[in-house]
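Contributing new complexes? Match this layout with pyridoxal-5'-phosphate.
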Amino acid sequence: MEITPFATEHFFAHYEFNTPYQLCNSDCETVSISELLDMVNVSLQELGRLGLGYTESQGNPQLREAIAASYATAVPDDVVILGSPVEGIYLAARAMLEPGDEVIVLTPAYDALVNMFEHVVGVERIKKWIFTPTATGWELDFEQLRRLISPQTKLIVVNFPHNPTGFLPSSSQLQELVSLVEAHGLCLFYDEMYFGLDHSGTPAIPSAADVSKRAVVLSGLSKTYGLPGLRSGWLIIQDQALRQNILNWKFYTSICPPAPSEFLALAAWRVRDQLRAKNIAQIEANLALAGAFFERWPGLFTWRPPMAGSVALVEMHVPSVTAVAERLAEEAGVLIHPAVTLGSDDQHARFGFGRAGFGQALHEFESYLQAHDIVAIERDADERG
Ligand SMILES: Cc1ncc(COP(=O)(O)O)c(C=O)c1O
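Output block (do not edit by hand):
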C-alpha cells in the first residue's frame, strides 16, 4: 500500500551526514554517553552490566514513574514508553481512528503528523487548519478551526512548541482549543516534542496532558534534551481502553523499548533541567546571531522570530528555496531546509537554532551570500526554466 513520501526525513537522509555547515536542525546539541553518565555520577561499568534481554512492553516502571511525576495529573500507568518518538505518531494514527473519521491537522507540520493520519483515513478526510502569518510572527485562527469541525470529525492534531514556526499558544488559546475538543466530544493528539524549550519573554504553558484527559500527548528526549540518538519517547494516554489499543499496535512495531536507551533515558531524566537549560542558552545565543543576520539582509528574508522551541519558519524572497538549498549544499557545504517538505510553500525555509555549530554555519552562509547574488542567480535560472 502506498504512503506519501516522508519528505523531511528523505531530505535529511540525503544531506545531514555529508553537509558540514547546518542551519536547519530541529534537535539541540547532544552529549556523549560518558558526559551524560558523569552528570549523574554513574560509571560506564554500570551501563556495561546492563542485560540485553527483552524489557517491559509498556516501559521500564522506574522510568514511567519518573516521567509521570513531571506532569501534574499523569500517573505511571498513563505513560507508554516508545521505541522512538515518531513511532507514537504511527501508533496514534492506527489506534485512534475508524473508517469515515475526519481529522483536522494544524499545518504546516512535521510531515508524519499529516501523512500518517492521511494514510489511515484518506486524503479527503484530512482538513488542514492553516497558520496565519502576521508581520512579526504566526497566529492561530480559531474561526477557521470552528468551520472545519463537522459531525465526522474525530481528532485534532497539533504540535506546540510548533515545528516549523516556533509558535507557542497562550494559556487561554490552549484552553480555547481544549474547550472546543471537549464541547464536540473529539480527541486531541498533541505533540510536545519541543516542550520546555521556553524563550525569555514568552509565558510557558502547561502540558496538554494536565489540561485535558482527551489529549494524547507525545513527548521525548530528542529535541528539548538533545538526545535524539537514544530514540527515547513516550505517550501520555489517560484513557485506559485507548492505551490498551495503542499497546496492542505497539506489539507489531517495537514490542518493547531498547534496554540501553531506557537506562540512559532514566539517567538523562535525573539531569533534565540541566540539559534543558544548556540547550535554551544555546538557542538564545543563536537567535541573537540570527536576528542580526536577518536584519543585515532585509531584501532576502522576512524574519518571524520563534516564541519557543528550537526552530523558526523564515520567508526567503527567491523563486525557489529548494533550488537555493541544493546550490548552497553543493557549492558552500551549507544546509538550509526547504519548508515545502513540511507543507509550506517554496518561499520558506526552516531554520534550527539548537546546535553549537550554528554560528560558524551562519558565517559560511553569509560569506556565500556576499560573493553570490543568489536572487539574481535564481531569477535567471527560473527564467531559463
Ligand atoms: C514535531 C515532531 N514530532 C515528532 C518528531 C519525531 O521525533 P524523533 O525523530 O525523535 O522520532 C519530530 C522530529 O523532527 C518532530 O519535529
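Reviewers usually confirm one structural detail per submission. For this one: The chain has a mean pLDDT of 97.
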